[in-house]
């Protein structure tokens, strides 16, 4: 008797599961986005430059030309001004000096405050708390502290949620909770309009006994650190997730450094996730499978991010490339999670994915500082993330294919999985390898 046999009797995706999905998971996903994403706009840093009283009545374009030095990367300085005696010189004299030797004129710190561009933001935490120039690093600190708070909050509220949400039957099985597992399965059957299976209590006892005797509960995360194929696969998956999380969150944080409307940039960076998700779900079922799909999308995303430094066409080109790369890397991320779930043995699947996600979260704590460097040159975060993705993409070629394969159930299975596969090979069709193992 397998757990799936009981599920088929009580309903694998009936009213009970649909209620959890449509009335909890989907609404919570929307609320999470509404809570977490506005932070990026609340601490946005509008364009700013030194305030020169004599030139304050001129147009924004004229003030930029007369006040702001040009830095490396063809970006206008936000924290310094030309070292010119603006008060004693006429406008024509200032223009003449700049036309003759603007690149050779020394600069100085702003001595009369700053002017902010209110085209997109009337006020933000940056403008209200003076978090610019020498204090601009605090924006990155705030984002990092926000991420740390989310990690801590996940532990706290996940524990509190146990008082409101039903326990997972699989978790109850792994914990050997006989009576609770019986009650949950009986409730699922009733809500799904199914009859409670005959001898359900006896079947539950048999499931728990078989689970405990199989040794699944005895496996520990130390298995990932021991030599062998499992450790190699674990490290390769870890590298891929670190690269993909860096690309996903790094590009999202970098939206403010891109040319164009920041709200449109953020919208487009989010919108590309819809087609990229559909592409991921389609591609992994083709002959490319999980292995080559991951390699293709992760490497392509990295190369795209390196294009702006190789082809310095302009700001709009960099913005469009960022949109496309975000979608491609999101596709790779979805493929990796599917592949990881199939690579790890049943006894270590949750631990393996959990560790990978945790390491990815730790890496994202440093991404605000990489985005901070993008204020000086937008190509710095793009190229850095691109190089990491290319390296991880090539490394992913050494992961075994899992599509239509007999997947590992125990640790010793994972140590042998994929050893006999040829490097230059495509995924099998379902008819080439029947029957398939099922993830439990």
Describe this structure in words.
The chain has 440 residues and is mostly helical. Among the domains are: 70 residues, no CATH class; 200 residues, MFS general substrate transporter like domains (Growth Hormone, Chain: A). 60% of the residues lie in helices and 3% in strands. It contains 19 helices and 4 strands. The C terminus is likely disordered.
Task: Summarize this structure briefly.
With 440 residues, this protein is an all-alpha fold.
List how many beta strands DSSP finds: 4
Q: In whole angstroms, how far apart are the ends? A: 13 Å
CATH secondary-structure class of the domain at 220-419: Mainly Alpha
The helicity comes to 55-70%
According to CATH, the fold-level topology of the domain at 220-419 is Growth Hormone, Chain: A
Number of helices: 19
- Structure classification: mainly alpha
Q: If you compute it from the alpha carbons, what radius of gyration comes out, rounded to the nearest whole angstrom?
A: 28 Å
Quote the beta fraction: under 5%
> Within the largest sheet, what's the order of strands?
1-4
| Biggest pleated sheet | 2 strands, antiparallel
The second-level CATH architecture of the domain at 220-419 is Up-down Bundle
């Amino acid at each position: 008797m397998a757990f799936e046999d009981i599920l088929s009797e009580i309903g694998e995706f009936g009213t009970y599961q649909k209620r959890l999905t449509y009335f909890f998971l989907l609404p919570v996903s929307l609320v999470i986005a509404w809570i977490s994403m506005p932070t990026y706009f609340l601490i946005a840093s509008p364009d700013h430059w030194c305030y020169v009283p004599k030139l304050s009545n001129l147009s924004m374009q004229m003030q930029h030309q007369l006040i702001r030095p040009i830095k490396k990367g063809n970006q206008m300085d936000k924290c310094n001004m030309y070292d010119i005696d603006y008060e004693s010189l006429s406008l024509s004299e200032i223009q003449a000096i700049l036309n003759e030797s603007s690149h050779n004129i020394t600069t100085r710190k702003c001595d009369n405050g700053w002017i902010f561009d209110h085209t997109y933001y009337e006020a933000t935490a940056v403008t209200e708390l003076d978090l610019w120039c020498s204090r601009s690093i605090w924006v990155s600190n705030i984002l990092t502290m926000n991420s740390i708070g989310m990690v801590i909050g996940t532990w706290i509220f996940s524990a509190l949620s146990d008082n409101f949400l039903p326990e997972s039957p699989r978790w109850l099985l792994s914990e050997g909770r006989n009576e609770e597992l019986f009650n949950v399965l009986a409730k699922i059957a009733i809500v799904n309009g199914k009859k409670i299976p005959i001898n359900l209590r006896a079947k539950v006892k048999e499931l728990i006994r078989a689970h405990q005797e199989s040794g699944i509960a005895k496996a520990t995360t130390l298995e990932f650190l021991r030599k062998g194929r499992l450790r190699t696969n674990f490290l390769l998956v870890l590298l891929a997730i670190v690269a993909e999380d860096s690309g996903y969150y790094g590009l999202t944080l970098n939206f403010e450094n891109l040319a164009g409307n920041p709200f449109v940039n953020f919208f487009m960076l989010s919108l590309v996730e819809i087609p990229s998700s559909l592409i991921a779900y389609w591609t992994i079922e083709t002959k490319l499978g999980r292995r080559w799909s991951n390699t293709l999308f992760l490497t392509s995303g990295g190369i795209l991010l390196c294009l702006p430094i190789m082809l310095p066409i302009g700001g709009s080109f960099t913005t469009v490339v960022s949109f496309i790369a975000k979608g491609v890397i999101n596709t790779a991320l979805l493929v990796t999670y599917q592949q990881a779930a199939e690579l790890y043995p049943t006894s270590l699947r949750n631990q393996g994915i959990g560790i990978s996600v945790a390491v990815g979260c730790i890496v994202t704590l440093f991404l605000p500082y990489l985005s901070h460097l993008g204020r000086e040159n937008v190509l710095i975060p793009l190229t850095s993330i691109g190089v990491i993705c290319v390296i991880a993409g090539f490394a992913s070629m050494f992961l075994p294919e899992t599509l239509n394969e007999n997947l590992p159930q125990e640790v010793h299975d994972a140590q042998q999985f994929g050893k006999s596969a040829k490097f230059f090979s495509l995924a099998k069709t379902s008819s080439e390898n029947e029957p398939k193992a099922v993830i439990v």
